[in-house]
Amino acid sequence: MALLLLFVLLISLVAADEDAFIGVNIGTDLSDMPHPTQVVALLKAQQIRHVRLFNAEPAMLIALANTGIRVTVSIPNELVLGVGQSNSTAANWVSRNIVAHYPATNITTIAVGSEVLTTLPNAARVLVNALKFIHSALLASNLDRQIKISTPLSSSIILDSFPPSQAFFNRSWNPVMVPMLNFFQSTGSFLMLNIYPYYDYMRSNGVIPLDYALFKPLPPNKEAVDANTLLHYSNVFDAMVDAAYFAMAYLNFTNIPVMVTESGWPSKGGSNEPDATVDNANTYNSNLIRHVLNKTGTPKHPGIAVSTYIYELYNEDMKSGPISEKNWGLFDANGTPIYILHLTGSGLVLANDTTNQTYCAAKDGADQKMLQAALDWACGPGKVDCSPLLQGKDCYEPDNVAAHATYAFDTYYHQMGKAPGTCDFNGVAAITTTDPSHGSCIFLGSGVKNGSFVNGTAPSMNSSITSSAACYAFTSSIMIIKVLIWSAFFL
């Protein structure tokens, strides 16, 4: 049955490789896993342009061919030991799983294992060798510049994560971390990190405020302040990213970017998981996506966004563990959205909330000088992309302050999630239900065509890597230390 989706997720801000993006993880622990062609149909309908696979399933790689979707392929944990012990094994893996599909399938990254240091410590001693052997195989195939190599790490390897300026990697892993970071630096790669504010919040026993974990706006007096840098943190995600940057700097690595390979929030949980709700999952993922695509950056690196993969595309009903483990997905197996993300946009981030379309427009008769001042602010400190207002662009006409201000005001209003107070501009703007789009000038939330998806059943493809959502283990002593540290800032 064809399902008319009210949900359009996102696409990258621009096509350039170096720009930050939002992607999705595709797990396959479903009892009714869609066929790879159906998965790709959903990705295309939702304009999802970056995906991370937990293995190198040939059928999925074939289905992704000629779509332009950028793919991170993973070497499962159970293969890391073999790859790290044998150059020829690594070369054979690259030949079968990369060379055989590239460039038709746009493979951009290879993730070697997942959280190997914390979930498969016996393979840790060969992890750097595995990275180097895979790189040598890519080099032999002249693909070393097109495809980056890294390995996703659990954020639990970062100790003393708050304040971020005091963060450092678990020193017992320094014999692995130092050569690994050297490899990332020499190959122009990035540190992959899995960040789950949901777990930090749950394990803090109430010390970390829920709003702080969910990216909800906080008044300045509620933000956490790093006493060493005086940087203000309004969410767990940014604090963890900056902790990673400081931890790398502690080892004298200052030019390696961070990529978040997993982050999300469960939409359902058991009786002991009261905050695993649809509303919280929607709030977290919507705010995270907006945070990345708006290039907000972190307090340590403002304006430098961190590419992030949402965990995950589908609810995985075959996952073991608590109820929340089965409910991290954006969709069910039929391609039906679990919730409608609170996102709006035009051209870049497409509107998906069609149930309450409102716009922000300049008030009739507003003072022209005040309008101009508000327009200048929106296009400057407000970080609105006002390039469509340039002469010859789609929104240049009509060439008057009120029309241009309406475009800038509405863009800002939607970028801020239509939050209260974001359509005022010193009294010269007001919320309206009238779509101000005209001609080829399409405003955020306007004229979006929803994709449709016909789903069916297919043989299951079992995921080969256990996500950190299932194996995010902390020792009790580390957790107690973290709670005490956070208590100093929130209690």
Automatic annotation (TrEMBL):
Signal peptide per UniProt: 1-16
Domain of life: Eukaryota
Protein keywords: Cell membrane, Disulfide bond, Glycoprotein, Glycosidase, GPI-anchor, Hydrolase, Lipoprotein, Membrane, Plant defense, Signal
GO function terms (MF aspect): glucan endo-1,3-beta-D-glucosidase activity
GO CC annotations, alphabetized: plasma membrane; plasmodesma; side of membrane
Family annotation (SUPFAM superfamilies): (Trans)glycosidases
Keyword Acetylation found: no
EC number: 3.2.1.39
Reaction it catalyzes: Hydrolysis of (1->3)-beta-D-glucosidic linkages in (1->3)-beta-D-glucans
Gene3D superfamilies: 1.20.58.1040, Glycosidases
Any single GO BP term: carbohydrate metabolic process
Domain X8: 358-443
Membrane topology annotation: Lipid-anchor; GPI-anchor
Keyword Secreted in annotation: no
Family: Belongs to the glycosyl hydrolase 17 family.
The protein's name: glucan endo-1,3-beta-D-glucosidase
